[in-house]
C-alpha cells in the first residue's frame, strides 16, 4: 500500500458547465471521459469527493438543496450509470451524501465516508451558536463589508496574501485559490452557510438506517461543528454501524495539516470493498 501511495498520480483541472454554472473538477488518475472511454483501462470505480462548500438549470443552485442537485447532475451527465461509486463527504458534504442516497437510492454506491459530519443540530454546535447570527441576521452586513474590503483590493495583493497564508501552513498550492477572496464567492458561501444553520437540524435516521451497511462515520474529539456528544448519540442509536471516533485529535479542517492521515484511514477501510470487485 505504501509503495502504491508514493506513485505519481496524474492530477488535472477542468471547468465544466453543470447545472447551469461553471464547475471546477479536479480529476485524479489517467481518465478523462468515462462515457466515451471503452478501453480495458477504463476504471471500474469512481471515488467522488464532496467537499465542504463550494443538463437542466437548477433552481437556487447556490443554496443547500441546489448544491445537492448539482452533485447529482454531475453524476447523471458525466458518469456512466453502471460505474461503482465511493462517496466521500466532509462536513456539510456529509449531509449532501446522505441526501444523494435518499433522493437516488439506486446509485451504485459501495461505500460512503462521512468525515466530521455536520448532519444535525448545526446551529446548536459551539461554532454554530456563533455562526448562526452572523450568517442569518447579519448576512447582508457581511456582504457589504466583504464587497468594500475586497472589490477594490488589487489582485496582486490578494494573491500575495493567499500565498503567504499557504506558506505559513506549509501547504502546496497546485491550483490557485484566488477566487476565495472574490466578494461573489464569499456572498455565496455566506448564503449557503445561513441555510445550513436553519435547515440542518434533525438527523435523517431513516436514510441512515436504509444505507447503514455502506456508511462509515468519522467524528472528531475536538470538533466545534459536531461535538463528541453527537457521536455518542448516533453510536447509541446505531450500535451496529461503522461509526468511529478519531483518536488522533484531528481537527474539523483536517485538509490543512492532516490530509495524509485521513487519506490513509480511508484507503485502509476500502481494502475489503475493492478486493471484492
Automatic annotation (TrEMBL):
GO terms for biological process: cholesterol homeostasis; intracellular triglyceride homeostasis; lipid droplet fusion; lipid storage. Its EC number is 3.1.1.13. It is found in: Endoplasmic reticulum; Lipid droplet. Pfam families: LIDHydrolase. Transmembrane segments: none annotated. It comes from the Eukaryota. It catalyses: a cholesterol ester + H2O = cholesterol + a fatty acid + H(+). InterPro entries: AB_hydrolase_fold, LDAH. The keyword Hydrolase applies. Keywords: Endoplasmic reticulum, Hydrolase, Lipid droplet. Belongs to the AB hydrolase superfamily. LDAH family. This is Lipid droplet-associated hydrolase. It comes from Piliocolobus tephrosceles.
Amino acid at each position: 500500500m505504501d509503495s502504491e501511495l508514493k506513485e505519481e498520480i496524474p492530477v488535472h483541472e477542468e471547468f465544466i458547465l453543470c447545472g447551469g454554472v461553471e464547475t471546477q473538477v479536479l480529476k485524479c488518475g489517467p481518465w478523462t471521459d468515462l462515457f466515451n472511454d471503452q478501453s480495458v483501462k477504463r476504471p471500474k470505480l469512481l471515488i467522488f469527493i464532496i467537499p465542504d462548500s463550494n443538463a437542466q438549470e437548477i433552481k437556487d443552485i447556490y443554496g443547500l438543496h441546489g448544491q445537492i442537485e448539482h452533485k447529482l447532475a454531475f453524476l447523471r451527465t458525466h458518469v456512466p450509470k453502471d460505474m461503482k461509486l465511493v462517496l466521500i463527504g466532509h462536513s456539510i458534504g456529509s449531509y449532501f451524501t446522505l441526501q444523494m442516497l435518499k433522493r437516488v437510492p439506486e446509485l451504485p454506491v459501495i461505500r460512503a465516508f462521512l468525515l466530521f459530519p455536520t448532519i444535525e443540530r448545526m446551529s446548536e454546535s459551539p461554532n454554530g451558536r456563533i455562526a448562526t447570527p452572523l450568517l442569518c441576521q447579519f448576512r447582508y452586513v457581511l456582504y457589504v463589508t466583504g464587497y468594500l474590503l475586497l472589490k477594490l483590493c488589487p489582485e496582486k495583493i490578494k494573491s500575495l496574501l493567499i500565498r503567504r497564508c499557504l506558506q505559513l501552513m506549509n501547504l502546496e498550492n497546485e491550483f490557485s485559490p484566488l477566487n476565495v477572496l472574490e466578494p461573489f464567492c464569499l456572498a455565496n458561501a455566506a448564503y449557503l452557510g445561513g441555510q445550513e444553520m436553519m435547515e440542518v437540524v434533525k438527523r435523517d435516521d431513516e436514510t441512515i438506517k436504509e444505507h447503514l451497511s455502506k456508511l462509515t462515520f468519522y467524528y472528531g474529539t475536538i470538533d466545534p461543528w459536531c461535538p463528541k456528544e453527537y457521536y455518542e448519540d448516533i453510536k447509541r442509536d446505531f450500535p451496529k454501524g461503522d461509526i468511529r471516533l478519531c483518536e488522533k485529535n484531528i481537527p474539523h479542517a483536517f485538509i490543512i495539516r492532516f490530509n495524509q492521515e485521513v487519506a490513509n484511514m480511508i484507503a485502509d477501510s476500502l481494502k475489503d470493498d475493492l478486493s471484492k470487485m
